[in-house]
Fold these 2 entries.
Entry 1:
Amino acid sequence: MPPVRVKYKDFHEIQKNNFKYKEMKRIEFIFKVLLFLVIMGSCEEFNPVDPITPACEWAENNQVSFTNLQLHHPSGLSNFHISQIPQDRIERSLINILDVNGDAGSPSQAKITVNIKANGDACVGEKTVAFMQGAPEVSIATINVPFVSNAVFLGEVTVGIRGDTFRNTVGSGAFYHILWSGSGNDPNGGIVGSIAGTKITYSNRDGSSKKKVISKDGCYIQNGQRVCM
Amino acid sequence: MKTINYKLTLVLLVIIPLIFSCNTNENQSIEQTTIQETSIKLKSSYSLLDITPNIYHDYFRQTDYSAGFSSLKANSLAEPSIVRRINISDKSNKIRNFLINNKSINSLTKAVKMSKVDGQNIYGKTISFKIGTNNKDKVGNSSTETEVEMYVPDLVEITNPKIDNDEELLPICYYEDFVLEWNADPNNEEGLVVIAEYFGNNAIPEDSTNEHILNTDVIDIDNGHAVLNNDLFKNIPNLSIVHLILLRGNVAIEEIEGELYKFYAESHVRLPIILAKDLTTVSKE
């Protein structure tokens, strides 16, 4: 039997009335919209909320400085750790924080994270950069970071400093590191340098069992209440 | 067939330039990481949970000039750092005087750190910004004066989770139905902004990532208590070090002789926490 030929016009009519065809067209439309949004979303400069706000450009470098840097170590350090830091347990050099190696294996986990946020007066934007051991950008009390090049920078700088990992010998938990956190909005530059460190202890480093963080006082906060284990 | 080809060409013409117009910083940072492993530029992602228009959107609106106050409390134990920022360039020599609370300000392009005592005259008070301008017209000089008054909410402080000493810094907090409490200001009609910010650091260093996440929401009523939307912590991994930021203030945008002026005053506090999403990964000493 010869194949039945359908006129193009009739074929088109059949397709139009076909539910599956309509459904496919709908999916195609959604797909196109999604594709457009994904593409736009991947553009760093795209801001759907307020397109008139200028974005900061980060073509320059400048220094984030600490005023009278004093990174205080908390209690509960191992003897090995104590032997690596100044006697008064106050570190006054960012280079040293990155250079002091723990006794829990390599590579070093020490890291300094810097976030620079413009306040929107001159431009809107922010930059986050992390520095590891040996970073030439890190000096004793300053860090060379990308800086706003298309406006006067008016904003806030937040720094997170993490020391390397040590074997824990005081209390439970196998390993620990110290974390310092500071923020500054001083127009004369500088973050208040006297920062109290927090000891973060955890159970294991490998994937052999569930990694657990150890609560200092055995408690955590849930629904606004202190829950003790 | 011709129609299909035409449509396809049209779609490609739209999409291809869009792809190439995108900023390729991400690729650059990957290349840089390979060359120089001592520094990494983190990839940022943002989420705004409430897009309802509110006064805080104006804070990030571009204006010709701006003047205001910003206060940062770096953590619950830190003293607030108050800064007065003025960005009013007077190239046309038009501005006759600029006053805040009837005190004349001489420098119009400066950021100045303020004392706590000076801050007491700003926060929790109604403040005024006054600009006097001179205009030259056909008849001669004329002057106008514009005054903007606004209520500036009290300096914000987080009261729960409560931090009383260094030992209590960085509490472990469970993310679901997170109860946040602060010093309420019933005179504040603008609500507050709450932000969860993650800089890629995790309590378990090996679980840290190279991403920066900033999720923002609005608290409508300043009554000192809110249960945060769980999505505020979306995409932030378990046991991450997260900065919870609470901000409140006021903003006014005024058009003066065809130019936009932004007047503002805000205060915000940061609360670094360890974010627990899985309580079986929290153990006691």
Note: Chain B touches chain A through 80 residues (CB under 8 Å).
Entry 2:
Amino acid sequence: MENTKVIVGLGSCGIAAGAKKVFDKIETLKNDNTTDFKLSKTSCVGMCFREPLVEVIDESGYYLYGEIDEEKAAEIFEQHIGNNKPIKEYIVKSDKFKTKDDSFFEGQTKIALRHCGLIDPENIQEYESRDGYKALKMIPSKNISRLDIIQTIIDSGIRGRGGGGFPTGLKWKFANNNKSDEKYIICNADEGDPGAFMDRSLLEGDPHAVIEGMIIGAYAIEASSGVIYCRAEYPLAIKRLNIALQQARDKGYLGENILGIKGFNLDIFVKEGAGAFVCGEETALIASIEGERGMPRKRPPFPAESGLWNKPTNINNVETYSNIPWIIYHGAGAYSKYGTEKSKGTKVFALTGKVKNGGLVEVPMGTTIRDIIYKLGGGIQDDKKFKAVQLGGPSGGCIPEYLADTIVDYESVNATGAIMGSGGMVVMDETTCMVDIARFFLDFTQKESCGKCTFCRIGTKRMLEILTRITEGEGKDGDIEKLEELAMRVKDSSLCGLGQTAPNPVLTTIKYFRHEYEAHIYDKKCPAKSCKKLLTYEIDPEKCTGCTICAIKCPVKAITGEKKMPHIINQEMCIKCGDCYSNCNFDAIKLL
Amino acid sequence: MRIERVTLEKKEMIQEAVDLSLINPLTAKYKGKKGCMIPLLQGVQNIYGYIPREVIVKISKETGLKLSDMYGVVTFYSQFRLNPVGKHIIKVCHGTACHVQNADAISDAIKDILQIEDGETTEDGLFTLESVACLGCCSLAPVMMVGDNSYGKLTKKIASKVIKDIKREEKNK
């Protein structure tokens, strides 16, 4: 029993689901009893839909328990840990038998997420025991030159995982070519896309992989200073990064003459972002590190030539860096064997929205969207009709159901009008209104526009006004055309990626769901029954039992009727709040 | 640009006298360092919960940072506040995943209970309500954070209960 290991998943989402309480419960039980086992923590294994997760590894095998609360934790403690009797009904994954959640892991190939959910992110030894820092150690032991590293990265075919898709190796080559007394390496961890949490999970689950990737990058381009620019909204990621950085310093992976490589000096610091989506754009991010308003600058010069403090700078995203040690350790060929002709390797997606198994998945490039949603994601919640999937956040677009066999690689996704983006994949069903989604994203980009370029600042505002009007039933003939024209102007006249891509959600929804726009404008109807002002609530007299609950709940007293007799809604008074609908116990309120 | 968050004119600032000496270690640490403005202001906000006017005036005098530059930075980033906030900050997530799972209903329910609008603070100074872009717990949507605690898979009822529980706790203190 002393060899039994109990590991609780303590990522941000696990904690939000109650994992800390479970951890505390098990710890208390451990202290109160004499049962001997090793209790530790890990981060997100990606199975967010089953959080909180508790893993028990004993002599007989490996068992992952899902949806555990304090009560169930006590049961596991008593029966499994105490009496070696695994509780099968709570187990979601095991090496002893099949479970219904196995399909979530089949089809996944974990490279970036190779350690997430398997190691204690606050313990450097656990990282080292799984080939951690071995790629870095190969540099002095095998005498690998800077150009060899860069060539390996070029050969691996990896492209920027932040969304741009620029070949990482080339980026490093440019930074290496520009000679300077000082160079910088930056990790972009300003994950601002609403609906994306890949980078957070990576930083919380495997901070050393990102740090090792940065150290290798710094060696390749001869940088002596590193910055991880992380959102302040990710306090746990920042905490774990700082712990990991200190451990790396103590072990000599950071500092002077690292691993005996003469003249290779590097330290890395975490810089907290202050909340501005545009800072995900590399020049805006640099401005923000310099302490200014995060407004993009003109390129060229590109950061590889003149970046932070006007010195050559290399910026990559979290996921890109976490792949680097694996590529160096296993070789370019091991990586490039995954993927398609132009997009190599794997990609992490945050699968969310109206999907049964929401979570973090990593698949080889070239997997179809349908497979991700149905095979890994288990299909649509409540078995409703799958309508569209949103890729790439506010810069991306909505891909309709009939294009779900599109494969994920940079070119194929771009061809649909969406973008690969950083990996947010939000699934939408028949109850999601596509006009409202377009309005939602425009509302976001409009607020986050830094204001530098006129079309991005004012154009997005005008587009938002039109979209809001349409969702409120005030749409006019010609609105769609006006939206399209404005969209093209905003795209053409913006300096940075934010403005150039802000109209994408509008353009793709018009392209694939024009009929929904038309229904809103001409018929004053919302086909998804989502836009409040276009709905009509009615009471079905056959089903109404006259229980009066709707009349009591109605905030404007628009519902009247005798007790035990069918009630009626006064349509002129109705404010369409939906309270009657959500409170009716007899399914008598109809949505028209 | 998030200009809506800055409500300097909207309300009479409830100004208590602030202890200016609290920032001395901060100015000593960052004075003269390049790129120090954001960490400095983040430090100020950690101390006071917002950025008091007299504090940035003092920083400007002591460090030579321009007042206009600081105001520019404060109003640019959504993290910074120019007004005092409530004891509990409620952040309702309005990321994409939460939006499709009807986060609006959660915000509405809380507005209803607390009788405040987005970005406002209750009269008793207990709660401030904010909408945020994404808390990164998308698979638990809809999500909100109160202080450092996150609550997932919310319904109107659960959200109301969380707020009411905190209210009751505060009363009993």
Note: Helices of chain B lie at 24-30, 37-48, 53-63, 67-76, 96-100, 103-114, 156-172.
